[in-house]
Amino acid sequence: MIDLLIAAAVLAFLVWLGRGASASKKASSSGKWRIVGGMIALAVVVWGTLLLVRGAWIGGVPLLITGLGMALAARRRGARSTATESSPSSARMSVAEARSMLGVGEGASRAEIEAAYKRLMIRVHPDHGGASGLAIQLNAARDVLLKS
Q: What pTM was estimated for this model as a whole?
């Protein structure tokens, strides 16, 4: 019985912690819920393990399986939201936006586009301390200009 009370208290605390995110910070909110989901999954796994150690196989095995499933779901959900949030589609970028982003004019040749791309990518590449979102946008801009 004490196990149920402790689990309920931990669950209530984690839900309260997750509700602290404001609606204006949607990306950070999804990240917080991913963390809260992972913490709940960890609590369920620990609870199931404790029941297994005590010899309560009927309660421990389902909790352990449920906790592991929740952990995998939280990980998948976080990876999916990160991929969809950080990859702008090159189909949505206009030619004018792409030129503006790379800083090239209308009559820019393929070599000028590639030189501008290389110059900017050296500055914003994630391996050199830059932001991956900017690198993705530069890739999309280069693709739009080289296809047109």
A: 0.41
